[in-house]
Amino acid sequence: MKRIARKDQTMIIAIYILLALLTFSAFYPFWNGLVISLNEGTDTVKGGLTFWPRAFTWENYAIVFGDERLAGGFLISILRTIAGTAGALFMTTLLAYGLTKNYLFGRSFYMMFFLFTLYFGGGLIPTYLLIRSLGLMNNFLVFIIPSLISVWNMIIFRTFFRSLPAGLEESAQIDGCGNWGTYFRIVLPLSGPVLATLGLFTAVAHWNDWFVPTIYITDPDLMPVQTILRRILSANIVSDQAGAESFALSKIESSRTITSKSLINATMMVVTIPIILVYPLVQRHFVKGVMVGSLKE
Question: Most C-beta atoms within 10 A of its C-beta, which of 52, 60, 213, 258?
């Protein structure tokens, strides 16, 4: 076996140490939040809580899961993530597949039109006026329709589709497949890695978004859990006119162990963990997807 030079060994050790430090710095805030959420709030106030809970309790999570508004917020977030991701992948891949056709009239114009939107946007006020004129205010569809097309994802899909062997589509046409049959039976099944990768990014964006509901939603029944959490964090569990941040005030006041900090961390864990659990499910496709376009044969 070829021996590694001492200089190379030193470099490898330094790289591993650096990666370990970066991993720790990225993971520790999440772990500390989990520890605080599992610790009694009054004990957390004493400080010195680092790696393990000193006074273990499930009470913070019991309050989070027991609140009806948070339960409704989770349902809205889940429905939005599933519907928004599925709709965006379908519409974006459909657009990308159409733009791969050389016989499409005005294909260059369409590409320039879409690329223009990457550099120039209408701004918040024109977008708000457009959403209002479409009747999407306080409407669940405001989470879905404006994000159906991602130009950046469309370009990635288009590049991937163009890399597929042309013989596949020709064979499908010989067997009687039209454009729809080729799209559903040939193109999409072969696009697993890129679909998983961009689908994951889209799902995370939908799950983490709190800004859109803040602008376009005033109905508390349509508030996703991320917006509720953001209001809790910004108001620090202080009641406002809408009462959205006061969901646990009575519980905090009546309990001797719960504080706003422990409750906030419990809520953050409940919001964060579900989307983290999605990564292992698509890891195999994700690794392949991030390499799309990096190698040419």
Answer: 60
